Amino acid sequence: MTTKLITSYEVLAQPLAPVPNVPFVTQGSFLQISNLEAFDVTVDIEYDGTPTFVKSSGSVNLDTNYITKTGIASATSYNVAEFLLAPVGFKGLVIPPKNTWLFGVQYIAGAPLPSPGIDARGFIRIKATPSCKLLLLATVRQVFTNFNPAASPGTLLDIAEGAYSVPIVGGPEVSFA
Question: Distance of CA 122 to CAs 35, 46, 92, 147, Å?
């Protein structure tokens, strides 16, 4: 398989500032891959970074999944333990011709909100079937929350959300020679 550097990523779950009673942000990294070919394409998506991903930390859990053409993430949830094996990432997935899949990696915070938090950042590489073309879209999605300990049994309050795309090295259409 041929390897290409694609983009950077940052995945986190942490307070906005190192002080009490501030909003908390969870930020995930998402990569949409469209197989432009008339044949199956096998991909590995590798996340190379420091600090590295960890499975969980208190009330934060790492969530890794992908959505196929069915549109159902839960049916194709990716095993976190397998994701964390070196090289870290999604491995050996076959995207059928003319299909678009969405890959997501994020830390999900539970109540009560953890302190200080957890994060991972670095860059993404894709290994793919030689002589294929993929169309790529990388996005970051953020959710800002507050924790209300007075609510029974304690509630995370979603106060704002945001999403934006991040650049793809060389543009969105990537050829794997």
Answer: 25, 10, 21, 29
